Amino acid sequence: MSLSTQPVPVVACGRIPAMGKSISQHLLPEYEVIHFILSYEAAEAELPHLLAGRDPQSRSPNEIGTHDYSRPPRAVIFGRGYGPQQVEELKKKFAGVAKEPVAWVRGNPADLPAGAAGPDYAQNVAADMKKVLSKWRDGEGKDEKILVY
How far is residue 84 from each of residues 3, 18, 35, measured CA to CA in Å? Predict the structure, then answer.
């Protein structure tokens, strides 16, 4: 793992903006959400640009994330609103677009809370995301694979 104090740039994909904003804040200081994607269709359109280190020219911009596209993302993190098959399809579609390996991180749908998410949900999910990303980075982040939190 590098000794750099800069946070690792990541893209987050979720269905609920308020949840995405909260999780983005809880991922700091280790991970910086540079862009937040709200739908599968937007992910299809925007990920190739983001992975190549370019501004995605989003048709539906939001205020979540830093929008600093100077460093390409090292991970694409999906909320549990995205199914395992959707994540697999996007990973296959954009394999090799990024110059460095990218971690594709998705939730286990079985772990979705029943009913409304409680006040600690975002913090707990961010901690789970950090755990799987940390293991990947400890392995020097050389493999492009799907990680499950």
Answer: 33, 22, 21
